[in-house]
Amino acid sequence: VILNAVLGVIQESKAEEALAALKKMAAPHAQVIRDGSFAIIPARELVPGDLVILEAGNYVPADVRLVESVNLRVDEAALTGESVPVEKKADVVLDREIPLGDRRNTAYMGTLVTYGRGRGVVVSTGMSTEFGLIAEMIQTYEEEPTPLQIKLDQLGKWLGWACLAICTVIFVVGLLYGVGLLRMFLTAVSLAIAAVPEGLPAVVTICLALGMQEMIRRHALLRRLPAVETLGSATAICSDKTGTLTQNKMMAVRIYTGGQFLSVTGEGYDPHGEFRRNGQPLALQQEPGLRRLLSAGLLCNDAYLETSGIAADEPRTWRLVGDPTEGALVVAAAKAGLWKHEVEDQCPRVAEIPFDPDRKRMATIHRVESRMTAGSQEVAPYMVYVKGAPDIVLELCDYIEENGQVSPLTAEKRAEILRANELMADEALRVLGVAYRPLLQMAENPSAQE
């Protein structure tokens, strides 16, 4: 009995602690403007009418109607199951009955801002939010017994009836043989008590506790012990969204540069991996074209990596803030020793033209150190980096850099690059093209038409 109680309490208390830690992740603080002043307050203190500031990497603290948005994208996978970040626009006026996933002018509590910035007025908090409505629906369900509980209940009934029948037979047979009434009654009661499996609850609890520990090792959190057996009874799981079954992470696995394909090893957002050609690791110091490509993808980028577990006794984990596709480029550059804060310190961004679905590309302008080269030619003080759809970027280019040498982009080279694009697309890879251009002087207001 003691073992049964201890195991149950320990396992379920661990689950409660883990759930409490998860609750702390749900927008614990919010950036607001109250009475014309900026303040950071606990999210639980928000009220309808507050003006909330949203930035990349922030969890939305409440349901808000956007009043300002600048290239704002929000990951709503936790709410709608849609794995691709949704573009939000404050100036859009929508029909009152439009479905939840199409409300471009609204951001919802618990979703993650992956790109851009914005402001919104709080319209709902707590249980009145969309997440709160889901929680309320979950709380209204009637708790049903698990398959194991149903089977144990059936076993108990069978044991009870069988025990009564056997005890009755023994009692009657004893009386027929002339045994005393009191003695046979005590014998029958003793048999009934002996038939009760006292160890069964303890054995069941131990088995479920072991199953719960195994699930925890596989990163599955269970709140109640019987849920282990319920999950084990599932024969099929149906889902119509890939984003709900994957980690919604992207990783650079193939690179085409210098007329050759390179492979990239590693896992997730961990910046440890190798660049290989034909299965052999590359010496990055001897690959100027690859470093130029990685630097361009890193600078023309708004995502960045965060790390936790810096102490020696803590496991180190990496978290991406921004769009998963851009994050893949940041991680690929880090594998080559190119860290975003260091590269941006050397080449600070001075202007940008954000990604636009019609243009299918993004451009950033960076200041580089002006100096004299060996040939007494001054290096351009600015550099433009572009990334986007390969065919669109290719149309903008007149030259190509291979092995550190710049040469005219011939029709044959264009066809070769397009074939490489098709080969990578056939492998279900998301393909991006990257280009750069030295700039002698920068316009006062760079625009998409320039």
Write the layout of secondary structure elements.
Blueprint lengths: L1 H23 L4 E6 L2 E6 L8 E5 L7 E13 L1 H4 L5 E3 L17 E2 L4 E13 L5 H10 L7 H30 L4 H15 L4 H18 L8 H7 L21 E4 L2 E5 L10 E3 L2 E2 L6 H12 L4 E5 L8 E5 L2 H12 L4 H7 L2 E8 L4 E7 L14 E7 L1 H6 L3 E4 L2 E4 L2 H16 L6 E7 L11
Antiparallel strand pairs: 1-2, 1-3, 3-7, 4-5, 4-6, 4-7, 8-9, 9-10, 10-11, 12-13, 14-15, 15-16, 16-19, 17-18
How is this structure best described in words?
It is a single chain. This protein has 450 residues and is α+β, with helices and mostly antiparallel strands. 36% of the residues lie in helices and 24% in strands. The protein contains 12 helices and 19 strands. The chain has helices at residues 2-24, 77-80, 130-139, 147-176, 181-195, 200-217, 226-232, 288-299, 324-335, 340-346, 390-395, 411-426, and strands at 29-34, 37-42, 51-55, 63-75, 86-88, 106-107, 112-124, 254-257, 260-264, 275-277, 280-281, 304-308, 317-321, 349-356, 361-367, 382-388, 399-402, 405-408, 433-439. The strands form 5 sheets. Strands 1, 2, 3, 4, 5, 6 and 7 form a 7-stranded antiparallel beta sheet that branches. A 4-stranded antiparallel beta sheet has the order 8-9-10-11, sandwiched between helices. The chain has a 4-stranded antiparallel beta sheet with strand order 14-15-16-19. A hairpin with an 8-residue loop joins strand 12 and strand 13 (317-321). Helix 1 packs parallel to helix 6 (200-217), helix 4 (147-176) packs antiparallel against helix 5 (181-195) and helix 8 (288-299) runs antiparallel to helix 9 (324-335). The longest helix is centred in the middle third of the chain and has 30 residues, at 147-176. The protein is elongated, with a radius of gyration of 32 Å. It starts with a helix and ends in an 11-residue tail after the last strand.
